[in-house]
Write a structure and sequence with these properties.
Layout: H1 3-9, H2 50-62, E1 67-71, H3 74-82, E2 90-94, H4 99-112, E3 115-119, H5 124-128, E4 135-141, H6 153-162, E5 166-170, H7 175-178, E6 188-192, E7 206-210, H8 213-226, H9 232-242, H10 245-264, E8 269-273, H11 283-289, E9 296-301, H12 310-314, E10 320-321, E11 331-333, H13 345-351, E12 357-361, H14 367-379
Parallel strand pairs: 2-3, 2-4, 4-5, 5-6, 10-11
Antiparallel strand pairs: 1-7, 6-7, 8-9, 9-12, 11-12
Helix pairs in contact: 2-9, 3-4
């Protein structure tokens, strides 16, 4: 089945009772049982819910996985994956990644006993030199947040497996439509389904997709035991968003490339980070492992401090200053004070997350309007 067809039909069948084409939203906390322990597969909605089951089936099919699990947020999904490890285990992590992932690793799991090394995972030699006997996991974002580095998934999967470790890929920026990590050898894929999978900035959710049955059973246990599950309406909203994912990702990518090209030629912009530009250091790798370069663009404005940026936000009329990404509307984010503020300033600056760095989530509006909006805002810097 081709992707556009899969997106519309994955996980969904007409309701057997009514014939409803859309999966019903099952607003119930509990289910009638014929006798103690005898039921129709559902007993309590923290454990199972038919709307969530449809979504999890869809998620698995999108990522070419045997299993899919939905969580109350992307961070809840991240938390569950890290709980596969035990105190003393070591994890190699992309040094450029979402601030919330950095925070949970440093402030929640490091005190619990896990050990983390944050390295440049786009460099195979650097990753290989970071392995220890106790390394049990390699965690990458590709494209990364916010600098859009591309890490070689297949090569890192081979390397991780050689050392007896799992490769986990945060596929939020790329989505299953643009990139298929499990098909390239990754063991686990995580998503903030809040972003492109939902696609309309109206739901918060996380997802895990994988093929290993033992890991699935453990994650399934954690999902139920810890209880960080989405409600049925959230599951319905993400199911609805998935149906238009291919259409949206084409438009996001088309607009993002036009904006990246505009920014690259602007005199007040010193650097543009976008894997669809030939100047990107991993341009060829991105073309190899991604269908399209995606809708995220980061760029460096020529400023010395935040004061130089104070008029930029006032000049925007179409872009909205906000955290998150992946909706149909265009957003601009200032990583140093917003999504990556939990990373110590010295570490941020070492990574390249400076006062002048901005991250765009390019929406599906008319590209000319978006470029005109940025042009006015940049004139005020």
């Amino acid at each position: 089945m081709k992707w556009a067809t899969l997106a519309v039909h994955a996980g969904t069948e007409p309701d057997p009772m009514t014939g409803a084409v859309m999966v019903p939203v099952y607003f119930t906390s509990t289910y009638a049982q014929e006798a103690p322990g005898v039921h129709k597969g559902y007993e309590y909605s923290r454990t199972h819910n038919p709307t969530r089951t449809a979504l999890e089936t869809s998620l698995a099919q999108l990522e070419s996985a045997k299993y899919g699990l939905a969580f109350a947020s992307g961070m809840a999904a991240t938390d569950a994956v890290l709980r596969l490890l035990r105190p003393g285990d070591h994890v190699i992590v992309s040094r450029d990644l979402y601030g919330g992932t950095y925070r949970i690793m440093r402030q929640v799991f490091e005190p619990w006993g896990l050990k983390f090394d944050f390295v440049d995972t786009s460099d195979i030699a650097t990753v290989e030199g970071s392995f220890r006997p106790e390394t049990k996991m390699v965690w990458i974002e590709t494209p990364s947040n916010p600098l859009l580095h591309i890490s070689p998934i297949a090569a890192l999967a081979d390397l991780a497996h050689t050392h007896g470790a799992r490769l986990v890929v945060d596929n939020t920026f790329a989505t299953p439509y643009l990139q298929s990590p499990l098909e390239m050898g990754a063991d686990i894929v995580v998503h903030s389904a809040t972003k492109y999978l939902g696609g309309h900035s109206d739901v918060v959710m996380g997802a895990i997709m994988l093929n290993n049955e033992a890991d699935y059973q453990q994650l399934r246990f954690l999902q139920n035991a810890v209880g960080a599950v989405p409600g049925p309406m959230d599951a319905f909203l993400v199911l609805r968003g998935i149906k238009t994912l291919p259409l949206r990702m084409h438009k996001h990518s088309e607009n993002a490339l036009k904006i990246a090209e505009f920014l690259a030629a602007h005199p007040k912009v010193s650097k543009v980070y976008y894997p669809g530009l030939i100047t990107h250091p991993q341009y060829l790798l991105a073309k190899q492992q991604m269908r399209l370069p995606g809708g995220m663009v980061s760029f460096e404005v020529k400023v010395k401090n935040m004061d130089d940026m104070k008029n930029f936000w006032k000049g925007l009329r179409v872009f909205t200053l906000a955290e998150s990404l992946g909706g149909v509307e265009s957003l601009v984010n200032h990583p140093a004070t917003m999504t990556h503020a939990s990373i110590p300033e010295s570490d941020r600056l070492a990574l390249g997350i400076t006062p002048g760095l901005l991250r765009l989530s390019v929406g599906i509006e008319d590209a000319d309007d978006l470029i005109a909006d940025l042009k006015v805002a940049l004139q005020s810097v």
